[in-house]
Write a structure and sequence with these properties.
The protein has 253 residues and is an alpha+beta fold. The protein has 2 domains: 16-104, no CATH class; 108-237, Aminopeptidase (3-Layer(aba) Sandwich), CATH 3.40.630.30. It is 30% helix and 27% strand. The protein contains 8 helices and 11 strands. Strands 1-2-4-3-11-5-10-9-8-7-6 form an 11-stranded mixed β-sheet, sandwiched between helices. The longest helix is centred in the last third of the chain and has 15 residues, at 199-213. Residues 113-253 form the N-acetyltransferase domain. This is Acetyltransferase.
């Protein structure tokens, strides 16, 4: 059943770049099982670090993809009745652990149009290597945990910052998510004492507008338990696309 059409429907509210990417990620290969709520695909071309992935889109439909070797290990085969619960139980029984899920946020097509027409106000701009001194001061004022979570770096593909009284207090950076893929993944960090003032929302919208101008679709990811980041995504006008899980680096082979 090579490349059998799935019953999972795409969500036209998002750009074709996004829907095509995720459908290709999960539906290229042999469809092992498919019903109105779950599709499981076997793909021998998956990278080792993504040898099993699960995506639950915001409409509640679930797609899973895994390598033939992993499918054999967990006991999956054709003509087998499956559900998400059964699939996850088989992973557990085979000691295959998924990493904590990420929320995936994107601009809907309607919100993209609104963003591109917007003129953002405030003391914010694109940062370059000439801003190394203020960026270093910004990093030194943040906790190691915040820096690790945000992954905002001055040498990324695009960096934007917001200032208050000539001090950099919020920054976001982006980089192309994969080679030859027009999706730019972003991280954002606001210094603790300057949160709740709208800096992050403006910086996120500014860098996303820039990305669109360069032909990229901005992508916002965060862990499910990062409630402040989830609220920021929504405040910045992004819409939840789904929850994405990959195999944990510590999982059994």
């Amino acid at each position: 059943m090579r490349n059998q059409p799935s019953r999972v429907t795409s969500m036209p509210v998002f750009s074709q770049t996004i829907t095509d990417f995720w459908r290709a990620s999960f539906l290229n290969g042999d469809v092992l099982y498919s019903d109105e709520s779950l599709t499981v695909t076997i793909n021998p071309d998956l990278d080792e670090e993504s040898r099993v992935m699960v995506l639950e889109t915001s409409d509640g439909r679930v797609m899973a993809v895994l390598t033939p070797a992993l499918a054999e290990k967990v006991g999956l085969h054709l003509h087998q009745e499956l559900s998400e619960a059964i699939f996850r139980r088989k992973l557990d029984e085979a000691n295959v652990t998924l990493h904590g899920a990420d929320y995936l946020f994107y601009f809907s097509e309607a919100d993209k149009i609104e963003l591109l027409q917007e003129t953002l106000e405030g003391d914010l701009r694109r940062l370059t290597e000439q801003d190394n001194a203020c960026f270093s001061a910004f990093q030194s004022s943040a906790s190691e945990q915040d820096l690790d979570d945000a992954q905002v770096e001055l040498d990324h593909w695009a960096v934007f910052g917001s200032y208050e009284q000539n001090r950099l207090v919020c920054a976001a950076s982006m980089y192309p998510w994969e080679d030859d893929l027009q999706i730019a993944d972003l991280g954002v960090l606001t210094l603790t004492s300057f949160r709740g003032k709208g800096h992050a929302r403006k910086v996120v919208r500014s860098i996303c507008k820039y990305a669109y101008g360069q032909g990229y679709v901005p992508q916002y990811r965060c862990q499910l338990d990062n409630h402040s980041s989830t609220l920021l995504a929504k405040a910045a006008g992004l819409t939840l696309f789904g929850k994405w899980e990959v195999i944990s680096p510590d999982s059994a082979n």
